[in-house]
Amino acid sequence: SAVISQKPSRDICQRGTSLTIQCQVDSQVTMMFWYRQQPGQSLTLIATANQGSEATYESGFVIDKFPISRPNLTFSTLTVSNMSPEDSSIYLCSYHAYTDTQYFGPGTRLTVL
Amino acid sequence: AQSVTQLGSHVSVSEGALVLLRCNYSSSVPPYLFWYVQYPNQGLQLLLKYTTGATLVKGINGFEAEFKKSETSFHLTKPSAHMSDAAEYFCAVSVNTGTASKLTFGTGTRLQVTL
User: Fold this and answer.
1) What is the pLDDT of residues B7-37, one digit of tens each?
2) A97 touches chain B (CB under 8 A)
3) Could you tell me the CA-to-CA distances from B2 to A55, A107, A110 in Å, in that order?
4) Which residue from A55, A49, A51, A37 is spatially nearest to A107, judged by alpha carbons?
5) Which is nearest to B2 in space by CA: B76, B71, B105, B109?
6) Which residues in chain B are closer than 8 Å to A100, comparing Cβ atoms?
7) Do A13 and A20 contact (CB within 8 A), yes or no?
8) How far is residue B71's CA from residue A25's CA, in Å, rounded to a whole number?
9) Under a CB-based contact definition with an 8 Å cutoff, are residues A35 and A94 in contact?
10) Which of A59, A111, B31, B34 is the most buried (most CB within 10 A)?
11) How far apart, in Å, are the Cα atoms of B18 and each of A25, B64, B77?
């Protein structure tokens, strides 16, 4: 499987600010995804990052709050905008391999004060 | 739509004892099933998966799971627990839409291994 990395690994931010999380895969992949894992909870899909087109958001998530870019087949970013303490979570990206399997990055641990 | 139920948010076993983590799924079409493990302060690591073929699948670190269609289950087992197995385990189901497979996760089971 390809190696997937995220930056930053963790951050502490002030409310009202925005944070952009980067996700890099070391080979070209068709589908990339962004998930949120709130404290003590399971993973919830935020959106599918489509290369060359707008991301597809799941119910409850909107582009104004979580803008996503996918400029090429190896890279994607997720921005958490106008943050509040409720946005404190682990944000994970993943990619979909041809084997019908998703592989996950190490996550970005965000704390909003 | 598919869903996953993991029975038991916390499971505690003694080192050397059998590990059994339960997962039941709901899907209107043949599912793909996965178990992921999350160690403290880390991302998710794929343990094993079932797509088609043999219903007993073996994964990393001595874990295995059996797909039982009649029981809509995909329970995870390991004959002998090790301290290093302490982690959060997530069962997930996906349905192949033809372009991609969306994963739906269970709520997770935290495994504690005691001496």
Assistant:
1) 999 999 999 999 999 999 998 778 899 999 9
2) no
3) 22, 25, 29
4) A37
5) B105
6) 32, 51, 94, 96, 101
7) no
8) 38
9) yes
10) B34
11) 37, 12, 7
